[in-house]
Design brief:
- The complex is a heterodimer.
- By secondary structure, chain A is mainly beta.
- Chain A is 0% helix and 50% strand.
- In chain A, strands 2, 4, 5, 6, 9, 10 and 11 form a 7-stranded mixed β-sheet that branches. In chain A, strands 1-3-8-7 form a 4-stranded antiparallel β-sheet, with no helix packed on it.
- In chain A, strand 7 and strand 8 form a beta hairpin.
- Chain A starts with a strand and ends with a strand.
- By secondary structure, chain B is mainly β.
- In chain B, the strands form 3 sheets. In chain B, strands 2, 5, 6, 10, 11 and 12 form a 6-stranded mixed β-sheet that branches.
- Classes of the chains: A mainly beta, B mainly beta.
- The interface between A and B is medium-sized, with 31 and 30 residues.
């Protein structure tokens, strides 16, 4: 049973560029969430997708956008990259709903903006 | 607004010592869920436990135990007879379910546990 997978593992971009990160959820899960984890801090919620729609959003600017595909996989896009966007980006999958379902995390994508 | 505080930034113990990681949360909801995750050096967050706000029963899983006290808004995690493999960053997280919305997690800042041989 494959867990959550993310690609790429590492990425180096220049300020002002755009980046796309990808995530495939754990088998049986229909919901994908994205988190940003700066060095030495806890993960911060970016947004959550279910049924190809954004269902919840954290305190992140519109430069951060996402998409969910019919097979439940998801992409995170960040435009006009800033140095402060350098972080570990974590994808998590779960079942959707108010049942407090646990989220399972992927290994993350380490983004460095220079 | 929901908030999770892990006051201990870093803890260092010697192998076989017991260690408790503290977690204090804030929420206005009566229904909520609490979680603990482990993040080893590899970076992947590993789910350890989920607890709902209506179940204050303590839980034990091997060397791990959790103490949930609504009266003090705390959900502490104890490792008994710590081992070097327990070295990692541990995160406490809170989820408040909302209608037609999902289950976003609010994380604390994490506690780095170092277990020395």
């Amino acid at each position: 049973d494959a867990g959550v997978t993310q690609s790429p593992t590492h990425l180096i971009k220049t300020r002002g560029q755009q980046v796309t990160l990808r995530c495939s959820p754990k088998s049986g899960h229909d919901t994908v969430s994205w988190y940003q984890q700066a060095l030495g801090q806890g993960p911060q919620f970016i947004f959550q997708y279910y049924e190809e729609e954004e269902r919840q959003r954290g305190n992140f600017p519109d430069r951060f956008s996402g998409h969910q595909f019919p097979n439940y996989s998801s992409e995170l896009n960040v435009n006009a990259l800033l140095l402060g966007d350098s972080a570990l980006y974590l994808c998590a999958s779960s079942l959707f709903g108010t049942g407090g379902y646990e989220q399972y995390f992927g290994p993350g994508t380490r983004l460095t903006v220079t | 607004a929901q908030k999770v505080t892990q006051a201990q930034t870093e803890i260092s113990v010697v192998e076989k010592e017991d260690v408790t990681l503290d977690c204090v949360y804030e929420t206005r909801d009566t229904t909520y869920y609490l979680f603990w995750y482990k993040q080893p050096p590899s970076g992947e967050l590993v789910f350890l436990i989920r607890r709902n706000s209506f179940d204050e029963q303590n839980e034990i899983s091997g060397r791990y135990s959790w103490n949930f006290q609504k009266s003090t808004s705390s959900f502490n995690f104890t490792i008994t007879a710590s081992q070097v493999v327990d070295s990692a960053v541990y995160f406490c997280a809170l989820s408040e379910p909302h209608n037609n919305a999902g289950n976003m997690l609010t994380f604390g800042g994490g506690t780095r546990l170092m277990v020395k041989p």
